[in-house]
Every structure is written in structure tokens, then in C-alpha cells.
Amino acid sequence: MLDFIYQQFYFMGKKYCLLSLIYCLLCSELFAQKVTISGTIRDAASNEALIGANVFDKVAQKGAVANQFGYYSYTTSTDSVDLFFSFIGYQTTRIQFKAMRDTLINVQLLADGLLDEFVVSAEQMDPIQEVTRMGTINVPIKQIKELPALMGEVDVFKVLQLLPGVQSGTEGASGLYVRGGGPDQNLILLDGVPIYNASHLFGFFSVFNADAINNVELIKGGFPSRYGGRLSSVIDVTMKEGNMKEFKGEGSIGLIASKLTLEGPIVKDRTSFILSARRTYLDILARPIVAAATSGNETVGYYFYDLNGKVNHIINDKNRLYLSVYSGDDKAYARYKNFYVNNDVRSDYEDEFGLKWGNFITALRWNNVINNRLFANYTFTYSRYHFDLFSEYQEKGTGPGVNESVFYAEQYFSGIRDWAAKADFEFIPNPDHYVRFGANMILHKFSPGVYASKSNQQNSNITLGSEELNSTEYAIYAEDDLNINPKLKANVGVHFSGFVTDGQHYTSLQPRLAARYLINETTSIKGSFVTMAQFIHLLTNAGLGLPTDLWVPATPQIGPQRSVQGALGIFKSLKGIELSAEAYYKTMDGLIEYRDGATYLNIDQDWQQKVAVGEGKSYGLELLAQKKLGKVSGWVGYTWSNTTRRFDEINFGEWFPYKYDRRHDVSIALTHDWKDNKDFSLVWVYGTGNAVSLPVHRYEGAESVRWGSTWRPEVQYYESRNNFRNRAYHRLDLSFSWWKDTRWGQRKWTLGIYNAYNRMNPFFMDLSYDRSGNRKIVQYSLFPVIPSFAYTFKF
């Protein structure tokens, strides 16, 4: 025990000594004879932070970028400055003055619906070839809302699936499989808090309500050192802060769900709020139909809801507080009640079963401007994911001299709870350096799966399954985005993390490097090398993102997942279009998968005995052409990839294709602002079919006797795992919207068609028999052509 405590202090001491050294070295820059201009860049109408807004000094030909909270810092040694403040979709603001001393400038930009592309071109914006990071894509919220949506329900994840290197898994599902990784290898953040299950409706929709979102960023390679804990991607979603100027609202009514968002000032220009709610009403619509068909004896339903809330308070120019909350649940249930009479005794009984799952997260953030070059963000969070599978039976008998009741209940539940704290610092000594460093700690409590039953018969209470596990995860990082010379720019950093569980202490040192070399004004070459570690696993039976998936920690028997990824690409801007080609190679080890025949329902067996540990590799080429401005915007993407995995105890220890390995993937997503009050959008996707396991031979097994007769079971022989491919997948979605301004706001109508030419795409394959008794492979499809309608409004 003393050795363990000593190790903890030893590692923590090394970490904080490293942070102190970095801080002291960097702070020496503060004493240089330079002038710093700093402040925030926000929306003039709502005071919302403009994440990634640009500051460009035409005199020095250098600039800065606003961070996640709209804060920027620009240091110069010139006497005069000519600053341009710009952001896509907003009018550019120009400020000229003599820079004699440190100056605070808070800028509010006006939205411009008629923004001309030339205004935000040239040196005023950071084009794709200028930035260091690769494998990073921002999708404007406006584009997300305009693209066609399944059943009219706008979904952030459905749009991310259209990007190169991102696979959807199965038809209609919202799961993300990035560069050969699994769904557990995505770090999904909502206001900096991890979400463990981001799916609604058994995976067909995500938990993110687009009306409550300010920014969405996908990182699939070249990970900055400030991110850790997952292998394949980071999806960083930031909620709106709330309008500080005036009360606003928007909502929509669709085929399966409705939503409403309200925002406004609590104290004008100082405190604001935003509240957004969404709920499906399939259960409400189906209730009278089911009741009529079953004489009121049966109720079947399903619904999900989301609730987002945020309060934003400005203490002063240097301090700001945020409190954000998200709660969302799914519930599917069936109830049946009836009665019977036996020997003058009436027995009323009710049977109910179902499943429910959901997330709850909350975050408290404190932004602190320590000085005009050093910015701090302190975050304290709590998150909970739970899954419950339940069944209850009640019966009550009444009659002459009889008053008896029977009660029996079963429940299977699992989940994970986190308490976390982190401190992040941004230090900008001059325009050639952007330094970030910080530390975080997470306390995990895992419930890998517990079965419980109770009954009033003989007072029976049974509990089976894995015990709760407590684990501690911590990390420390430092990175610098530096300009080496006008052509060469690099992001260099290191991420150190550790995990303590059940007496085992795992550590991981992860160097990160990304570099950009500018060939000419419009073209650059980029490369990156990253190592990643993940200390938690997801046990999954299927690829639908079902709530039966169980989160478990690394243990002394099952180690963490690790990966190494290298990437190289060329990037170019051409007449308002961003072009990129990226090649990557990634290796993974420590992957786990259920052994053949094992499931989460084997409650009498510890999960560690059910899994095999293996490795994987993925490599590919991703091409993207994206246009963010103009009447026609969107992107065309293509991915060629190869993803395989290997487990000693599966497939005879040989490599096999990953289930969601997709050799070719094409996506086209375009929106056209047809007129001032009309737009049209389309999405077309094509993908090689998923890999499936099908038998190649069958034969009769050993003879046995069943119910007095001789019987020979059929034995199926599988040559290898995932040895066949489904048919290719392709689909066309269309959407048309028109809107009208009213005296109270705006109203909008949207008509959409999902799978416009009614392609019967494979959902899964199975073996069956034809009329002659011969075996055949049968394809089952899920979605035919589906029209949709949505009415939205703003006030």
C-alpha cells in the first residue's frame, strides 16, 4: 500500500513539475517589449461566442483565432495595427490604431445573409492549407439543418456520416465508425463532458438537438495533445450560450417528434439562459390504436426525450461562469392486463416488461482571463449512463374468504458514473506560438451488469452478476502550435495518462506531432503522427448501438486499448473550394470482442471470461471537396479503406475483415439557396456492402433420439469470419424548404424524401429455404422510400 501511494505521489510530482517548468519558461515571454491586443469576438445580436473567428493584422501579416469561448490574444511589436475581425456568415470589422500599450478590444460582428465570398477570402480567413491540423472538419450548423433528414428529424451524426473516413454501420443508424474504429473509440463531448451512449431509437437518431448547438467539430486524425482517452475520433459539440440581448425562441413539429428552444437574458448583457426540449410522440399516437385492437387490455409504446439547459453569467471582463445540463432517456414498454375467474375467485393480473436507457450530464465552467496572454478554463462535471431491462408481474385474487396477491419482478441493469475535474490553460506569448497545457482527473464507477429478482413468494430475493468497479483516470498534457517560418508550421505536444483500477496501475506516454509545409499560397502538404490509449471498453453484441452494450474498465486481466496512427495529405484552396487528399495507416491492439456464443445475458459468468483480446489495423485514402460559401454549398467525398482484425480465439487466429470494413464509400451533400426564401438540398451515398459471416457447407450431425424418434441435427460450417459481403448500399435523399417572414418572426415548411428511388438496401442477411426445400440467402431491408414533413418557426 505504501509503495502504491509513493508511486502516485511520484507520478503526480513529475507531472506538476513538468507543468511548472513549461509555465515558467513561457512566462518569460511576457517581459518582452511587445504590445498585446486581446478580447472577445461575439455575435452582435445575441452576444454568442464566435468559435474560431479570425483576427488578421494587415501590417504584420499575422493574426490570431478566437478559442472555444470567443477569446483571442494578439501580440505585436509594430507601432500601428490594421486589424480585420472576420467570421463566415458575418460582416468583417476593421479597426486601425496606434498600438502604444496593451489594449482590450471586444468585438461584436453583424450577421450578413448576403455575404460576398470575396469579403472573407484572401488573408482575412484561415484557409484549409494554412492550418496545421489535419483530419479535422467543422460542419456549419446551417448546413446540418438544411440537409435532408430521416423522417424529418435533423441529426448531427447523420451529417457526420457523410464525411470521408466515417462509416454509418447499418441502414439508418447514427453510430460512427471512424477510420476502422468501433463506436466505443469515439470521444463524444457535449460542453466538454463525455457521453457514453449518444443514440436514440435503438441507434437511429443521436441525442444532439441541432437547435441547441453552437458548434460541431470532428477530429479523426492528428489529435492535439489536449484530447485523450479514445483511439479513433473526437466529436466536440458545444451548446449555445443563450441570447443576452433579447428573448428568442424556435421550434418544430415533425412526423415523429417536436421540439422547442427558448433563450434570452436573465439580466441583460450579463446573464443569459437557453432551454431546449425534444420528445417523440409515437407512443401517444399509437395508444388509441392499440387500445381499440386489444379492448383496452394492452398498451405498447416507445418514446425518447432530450432536455438541454444552460446558464451563462458574466462576472466581469475577466471572469465568466457557465452551468450546462443535459438529460435524455429512451423507454420501450409493453403492458398487458386482464382477469379470469376460477371457482368464484376473480384474479386480476398485470404484466409489464420493457427497457429504458439514458444519459444525464452536468458541467460547471469558470473562464478566467489571468492576463492578456494567459487564459484559463476550469471545469467540474458529473455524468451518468444507465440501462435497465425490466419485467414485472402482479396478480391479485379476490373472492369468498380469499385475498391473495402474487408479485414477481426481474431487472437487469448496467451503467457508468463519472465525477471529473480539469484545468485547461491557453498561453499566447506572440503570434508564432499558441501554447495549451492542463490536467484532468476522472473517478469512474462501473456497473458491468447485474441481474436482480424479487418475489413475495417465500420472500425470494436474488442478485447475480459483476460487482461494481471503481477506477481513477488522470491525464496531463502540453502542446504548442508554432510558426517555425512562413512556410513551416507545426503542432508539437505530449499527452501523459494513467488509470488505476483493482490494484493495477496503467500509464501511457503519448507523443503527438502535426506539421504543415506551404508549397505556395494555395497549396500545402501536411503530416501527423499520434499515439493514443483508451482505458475503457465497450462489450457489444451488435452494431446497432443497442443499449445492451456494456461499458467496462481495463483490469489486471484485460489491459487498455492502444493505437498508433500516421497520416499524410495535400490540401488546396481553389476558387472558394477546399480540396484535400489524406492517406492514413493505423494499428490498434488491446481490442476485445465476445467469444463465440457469449453474450451479456451469461450472468453467472464474469465478463472477463467471455471476451477475447486481439488487434486491428486500418489504412485508406480520403478525398474531400468542400464549399462553405455561396448559393451552392456542401461537399463531395470519397474513401477507399481496408480494415481487418485478429483474435487468437476467433477465426482460428487468422486476420478477418471488420464487420464495418467498407472498401469504397462515396458521399455527395449539396444545398442550393434557390431564392431568397427557398432552398433545395440533396444527399447521395454509395458504399461497398458490409462484411457478414455465412456458412459454406452444411452436413448432418450425429444421430440422437428426441421425443421417441431419431433425429440428426444440421451442422453449419463457416470457412472464416465475415467471409461474404452484402450488396452495395446506395441511396438518394431530397429536401425542399420555403419560409416566410411574419410580424412575429419566421415560419418554415420542409418537405423531404428519404431513399427517393426506393432502393431496398440490405439491413441484414439470413439463411432460409425456397419452395423446393433448398437453402438460400435472404436479404432483409429496413427503409423503403419515406416522405417527411416538418414545420418550424422562430420568434
From TrEMBL:
<comment type="similarity">
    <text>Belongs to the TonB-dependent receptor family.</text>
</comment>
<keyword id="KW-0798">TonB box</keyword>
<dbReference type="InterPro" id="IPR037066">
    <property type="entry name" value="Plug_dom_sf"/>
</dbReference>
<dbReference type="Pfam" id="PF13715">
    <property type="entry name" value="CarbopepD_reg_2"/>
</dbReference>
<keyword id="KW-0813">Transport</keyword>
<keyword id="KW-0812">Transmembrane</keyword>
<keyword id="KW-0998">Cell outer membrane</keyword>
<keyword id="KW-1134">Transmembrane beta strand</keyword>
<dbReference type="InterPro" id="IPR036942">
    <property type="entry name" value="Beta-barrel_TonB_sf"/>
</dbReference>
<dbReference type="InterPro" id="IPR039426">
    <property type="entry name" value="TonB-dep_rcpt-like"/>
</dbReference>
<dbReference type="GO" id="GO:0015344">
    <property type="term" value="F:siderophore uptake transmembrane transporter activity"/>
</dbReference>
<keyword id="KW-0675">Receptor</keyword>
<protein>
    <submittedName>
        <fullName>Outer membrane receptor for ferrienterochelin and colicins</fullName>
    </submittedName>
</protein>
<keyword id="KW-0472">Membrane</keyword>
<dbReference type="InterPro" id="IPR012910">
    <property type="entry name" value="Plug_dom"/>
</dbReference>
<dbReference type="GO" id="GO:0044718">
    <property type="term" value="P:siderophore transmembrane transport"/>
</dbReference>
<dbReference type="InterPro" id="IPR008969">
    <property type="entry name" value="CarboxyPept-like_regulatory"/>
</dbReference>
<dbReference type="GO" id="GO:0009279">
    <property type="term" value="C:cell outer membrane"/>
</dbReference>
<keyword id="KW-0732">Signal</keyword>
<feature type="domain" description="TonB-dependent receptor-like beta-barrel">
    <location>
        <begin position="294"/>
        <end position="755"/>
    </location>
</feature>
<feature type="domain" description="TonB-dependent receptor plug">
    <location>
        <begin position="152"/>
        <end position="230"/>
    </location>
</feature>
<dbReference type="InterPro" id="IPR000531">
    <property type="entry name" value="Beta-barrel_TonB"/>
</dbReference>
<dbReference type="Pfam" id="PF07715">
    <property type="entry name" value="Plug"/>
</dbReference>
<dbReference type="Pfam" id="PF00593">
    <property type="entry name" value="TonB_dep_Rec_b-barrel"/>
</dbReference>
